[in-house]
């Protein structure tokens, strides 16, 4: 427990000192949501129908933190490896799971701040509306961001350079974006693509956000979807620990 806490504190201090990374974590999703608002600002809306910004924006509140945290975590972890910090840590009795859990916790704290800021901007500044509580959207956005952290840590275990870490994005992130139900409802996908979408965690995150969008209260399906995403994150973290190399070369 002591090693885990020490790792978490160290990474949080490093993040606090890196103002550019902090700015990217906190501001990028909020700025992209603002851009999305102006893209759809003049889009015609049918009577008694939600604005297109409302339908797409609530989904993007889950997708953007996921994408941003995946990239930042994968690159940051790879930078630790290239600098030799990770290899020095792995020569100590520090368990690999404690190491990755510390990284995951630190970046998850940053993810919580990121999700809170993005939802604050979307709901209170841009007027995003949903049938359910904005607090549920914040919760789901945080879980999605933590999933991005866990998958970023897993991807970094297989990369040897920062460029290779970025190359995992088309493999891990983009297929989930295409099949999550944002572009086309999953039920309208070809059968084999729908089957693939059913085993991708981002699909369940989008489903949970759509539940909040259309229901005034908490639903059992929403909690199931959140649990599925959380389990995926935990499994990714465990796989990352199992595949983490003790040497960089």
TrEMBL record:
It comes from the Bacteria. It is found in: Cell membrane. The chain crosses the membrane at residues 21-40, 52-76, 97-124, 136-158, 165-184, 226-244. It is a multi-pass membrane protein. One of its GO terms (molecular function) is ABC-type transporter activity. The keyword Nucleus does not apply. Its main location: membrane. Residues 20-247 form the ABC transmembrane type-2 domain. One of its GO terms (cellular component) is ATP-binding cassette (ABC) transporter complex. Keywords: Antibiotic resistance, Cell membrane, Membrane, Transmembrane, Transmembrane helix, Transport. One of its GO terms (biological process) is doxorubicin transport. InterPro entries: ABC-2_transporter_component (IPR051449), ABC2_TM (IPR013525), ABC2_TM_bact-type (IPR047817), ABC_2_transport (IPR000412), ABC_transpt_DrrB/DrrC (IPR004377). NCBIfam families: Mtu_efflux (TIGR00025). Belongs to the ABC-2 integral membrane protein family. This is Transport permease protein. It comes from Nocardia yunnanensis. The lineage of its organism: Bacteria, Bacillati, Actinomycetota, Actinomycetes, Mycobacteriales.
């Amino acid at each position: 427990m002591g090693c885990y806490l020490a790792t978490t504190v160290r990474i949080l201090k490093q993040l606090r000192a890196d103002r550019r990374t902090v700015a990217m974590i906190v501001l990028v999703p909020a700025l992209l949501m603002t851009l999305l608002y102006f893209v759809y600002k003049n889009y015609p809306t049918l009577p008694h129908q939600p604005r297109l910004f409302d339908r797409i924006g609530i989904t993007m509140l889950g997708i953007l933190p996921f994408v941003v945290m995946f990239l930042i975590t994968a690159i940051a972890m790879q930078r630790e490896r290239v600098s030799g910090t990770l290899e020095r840590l792995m020569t100590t009795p520090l368990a690999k799971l404690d190491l990755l859990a510390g990284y995951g916790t630190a970046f998850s704290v940053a993810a919580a701040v990121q999700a809170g800021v993005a939802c604050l901007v979307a709901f209170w500044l841009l007027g995003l509306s949903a049938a359910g509580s904005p607090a549920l959207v914040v919760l789901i956005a945080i879980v999605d961001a933590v999933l991005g952290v866990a998958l970023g840590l897993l991807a970094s275990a297989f990369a040897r350079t920062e460029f290779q870490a970025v190359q995992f994005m088309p493999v891990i992130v983009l297929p989930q974006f295409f099949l999550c139900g944002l572009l086309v409802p999953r039920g309208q996908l070809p059968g084999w693509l729908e089957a693939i979408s059913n085993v991708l965690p981002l699909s369940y995150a989008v489903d949970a956000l759509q539940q909040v969008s259309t229901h005034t209260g908490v639903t059992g399906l929403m909690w199931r979807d959140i649990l599925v995403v959380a389990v995926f994150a935990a499994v990714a973290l465990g796989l990352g620990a199992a595949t983490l190399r003790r040497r960089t070369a």
